[in-house]
Amino acid sequence: MSEDQKNVYLSALFAGAGAALAVDLALFPLDTLTTRLQSARGFFKTGGFKHVYKGIGPQTIGSAPEAALFFLTYESFKYYVEPRVDSDVLPLVYMTAATAGEIVACLIGAPVEVVKQRRQTSTNIKHTSMRIFMHAVKSEGLIKGLYRGYGSMLTQHIPFSLIQFPVLEYLKKVYRVSFKNDVPLDSWDVANCGAVAAVFAAITTTPLDVAKTRIMLANKKLATDMTIRTVLKQLYYEKGFKGLFAGFTPTVMLATVGSYVFFGTYDLSKNFCNDYLLNRDLSVNW
């Protein structure tokens, strides 16, 4: 493995993990409010504006490796494929890379999301993250308990990434050529591109996010018959389009601000890692 390949892997791992932690610490309360707005029990019955950092533990533990795996997969796919294809098919490359990244990352993300969202919507002070984790495993089994929402999570995350990443790469290219005289973008430029791309993705995929939340929060009996399609049909039947877009405002805000922080931090961290590896000639045994 060449030194350049090692640098791609290492920078993607560390930058992805650092970016995820930055977003979690800054925007977790908004994530909690979104989950409660999308819950079938209602906003105030699941805690309202109180204790908005409930669930931060599992999220902090899981989000760093989840993001690291995503960008390791995404950047690696780009590294190998991007130079070998015509520019006309680059959007397809980015979409494929993002899809592969989500499939891998959600292996960690799904269990974390189940525990986190149940913690966010629980009003029982005895329901700690560890108790929720153990109860899910004991009552439903490891796969059914913790990976119940894996399919619905992919159904929401993949369309989001299929929109966000091609738009992000396009905006970065246009911004670089049109406003930066074809010099590398600053991290805040990348952050702006990420935020704009997230707006398009969030608006389109909010109903899928609502369905994913309902499936992950449902009790064992109800969950066996729940699919993305049945949940969306039931939501529309009960509340119309308003039900499909529950939590729309905080969802879009979270995606926009979160992507600004995430991609800005990711680019800054990646550049730092690349400079460090280049200047120090770091040697890694693989």
TrEMBL record:
Keywords noted in UniProt: Membrane, Repeat, Transmembrane, Transmembrane helix, Transport
Compartment(s) of residence: Membrane
TM ranges: 7-28, 92-112, 243-263
Membrane topology, as annotated: Multi-pass membrane protein
InterPro entries: MCP_dom_sf (IPR023395), MCP_transmembrane (IPR018108)
GO cellular component, one term: membrane
Repeat (Solcar) residue spans along the chain: 7-80, 89-174, 185-272
Record carries keyword Nucleus: no
Keyword presence, Transport: yes
Family statement drawn from the similarity comment of this UniProt entry: Belongs to the mitochondrial carrier (TC 2.A.29) family.
Protein name: Mitochondrial carrier protein
Natural source organism: Zophobas morio
Organism lineage: Eukaryota, Metazoa, Ecdysozoa, Arthropoda, Hexapoda
